[in-house]
Write a structure and sequence with these properties.
With 282 residues, this protein is α/β, with parallel strands linked by helices. It contains 11 helices and 10 strands. The chain folds into 2 domains: 131 residues, Rossmann fold, CATH 3.40.50.300; 69 residues.
Length: 282
């Protein structure tokens, strides 16, 4: 799987003498197995980009290519694309509506025209992938906890067997345990199933722990496309656009200023702990 945005732009008034751009000349590629994060201040163009990725929004300039094909060419099957590039919006549990968990997860496969047997087979497999036991099948989605509802919503997308999963703030409103459960599940999906993941997040800590690649948007333009470690070295530049590095990064720099030779690339608690023990000779 290869999903490419090629010099894409989006203007609300493209024919004006001075167009106003939500996104301007952005190019990036996502491949099978990638776990990428997308960050940026409110209004930076993140939402516009992810809507390009599964054909919900057409760029006013540039191309969106899925496995080398332009998804906005005439006769391109956008319905099929949206099965392969699944988009989970923020607070996806608000989209739950069926009377049972199993029926809700079957909704996507049902719209694909699959038999009832195939629908349920896919739904049960998706439930296993997100850690929902069989005992949840006949429960009402509305009786579940916030984290469980979110698992059901993600399972509903996974039941369509996407090759790429785009998650818009999937941990919003969850407690720390729920957040770690959801992101750990998504990380495992990427590792074990080869699904490409694009995570839109405001949490630099989550990005540091889970992402292998980081896209940073600034006023509609792609500012950085690199590993999280490489991007967070520019923490002062990130601060100038309303972002930050993980808290651990700031602690690492503070320790260096005090004369401790810890790596400035430490992004997580585990990495900083290892660095401190190394410096102390333990």
């Amino acid at each position: 799987m290869e999903l490419t945005l090629k010099n894409v732009s989006y203007s609300y008034n493209p024919d004006a003498p001075e167009p106003v751009y939500a996104v301007r000349d952005v190019s990036l590629t996502i491949r099978s197995g990638d776990f990428a994060a997308l960050i940026g201040h409110t209004g930076s163009g993140k939402s516009t980009l992810i809507q390009f990725m599964n054909g919900l929004l057409k760029p006013t300039e540039g191309q969106v290519l899925f496995n080398g094909e332009d998804i906005f060419e005439k006769k391109y099957p956008l319905k099929t694309l949206r099965q392969k590039v699944g988009l989970v919006f923020q607070y996806p549990e608000h989209q739950l509506f069926e009377e049972t968990v199993l029926k809700d997860i079957c909704f996507g496969p049902k719209n694909m025209g699959l038999s009832k047997e195939e629908q349920e087979e896919r739904a049960r497999h998706a439930m296993k992938l997100v850690g929902l036991a069989e005992s949840y099948e006949d429960k009402s989605p509305f009786e579940l906890s916030g984290g469980e509802k979110r698992r059901v919503a993600i399972a509903g997308v996974l039941a369509m067997k996407p090759e790429c999963l785009i998650l818009d703030e999937p941990t919003a409103g969850l407690d720390p345990a729920g957040r770690d459960d959801i992101l750990g599940t998504v990380r495992a999906l990427s590792d074990e199933e080869g699904i490409a993941v694009v995570l839109v997040s405001h949490s630099m800590e989550d990005v540091a722990v889970y992402a292998e690649r980081l896209f940073v948007m600034k006023k509609g333009e792609l500012l950085y496309d690199d590993t999280p470690k490489a991007v967070f070295r520019h923490y002062k530049e990130l601060e100038q656009i309303g972002l930050s590095a993980p808290q651990v990064t700031y602690i690492a720099h503070a320790l260096r200023e005090k004369g401790f030779d810890v790596s400035e690339d430490a992004m997580t608690v585990a990495e900083l702990k290892q660095e401190i023990l190394r410096v102390l000779g333990k």
